[in-house]
Amino acid sequence: MKNYNGFKTREDRHSFYKSNPWRAMRLYILNRDKLCQVCLSKNKLTIANTVDHIVDLSVSPHLSLDPKNCQGLCTSCHSRKTSKEHNGKTTTFKPKNLMWDINEMLDI
Prior knowledge:
Distance between the termini: 51 Å
Number of strands: 4
Strand content: 5-15%
Mean pLDDT: 82
Number of helices: 5
Structural class: alpha+beta
């Protein structure tokens, strides 16, 4: 397996995200975290469809395949987190059809 010890360029990241080890890790995390971890912490049920590195690859490349450094997120939360990490701005996209309020579902 290629040693992913530096993600300095877009090509480095692209190569990593196309690798078999990452694809296997992605499936593992999405199976483990079926719901978005950020939404869940806010009592929202949203399907996780993206795997996020909690600590960015550019900061800690040695954690690239560590499941403790990965979490399942929805598209909206991942976009917001990535935007904050890269330029301090947030996005507002929310896939409404995938989000449910736990309290509404339980009639609380």
